[in-house]
Amino acid sequence: MSVPGHLFLAHFPVALIVTGAAADAIGAATAKQGLRRAAGALLVLGAATSMLTFLTGGAALQAIYPRVSPGDPRIEVHAQWGGAGVWALAAAGALRGLWRDRLRGPHRWILLAAAIASAVLVIAIAFSGAALSHG
């Protein structure tokens, strides 16, 4: 897939995970289990789309070389954030999928912490990519 494909896909994990984390926090604060279940679906879908975005990164890297030098440190920063971060997002999404009905007790707080950490991580990955494409 070309760079436009990577750039198009990159918006989905950000939107899904950030929205899912916000909904999860509101659902936890108001004890609305239905909202937390919906948030979980957004988080799992966001993790899945982060994998698709990661898989299109190689083509994006090749296509950006005419505009950015191969030695540019922004490439390494984004590769490190995206390369390691996608696995953390996948793990958080898998955990949410496995524990989708465990919304009480200690699981409640673990899932909420994973959702918030995923939101912070996906934003960091997005900012490092934006530095390449817009910076």
Number of strands: 0
Average pLDDT for all residues: 91
- Report the portion of residues in β strands: under 5%
Integer-rounded radius of gyration: 16 Å
* Unreliable sequence segments: none
N-to-C SSE series? Answer: HHHHH
Number of helices: 5
Beginning-to-end CA distance, first to last residue: 22 Å
Largest sheet: none
Query: In which range does the helix fraction lie?
Result: over 70%
Shape assignment: elongated
Describe it:
It is a single chain. This protein has 135 residues and is mainly α. Helix content is 84%, strand content 0%. It contains 5 helices and no strands. The protein is elongated, with a radius of gyration of 16 Å. The two termini are 22 Å apart.
Give me a quick take on this structure:
With 135 residues, the protein is mostly helical. Helix content is 84%, strand content 0%. The longest helix has 29 residues, at 105-133.
List the SSEs and their pairings.
Elements lengths: L2 H28 L2 H23 L1 H8 L8 H26 L6 H29 L2
Helix pairs in contact: 1-2, 1-3, 1-5, 2-4, 4-5
Structural features:
mainly alpha, elongated, 135 residues
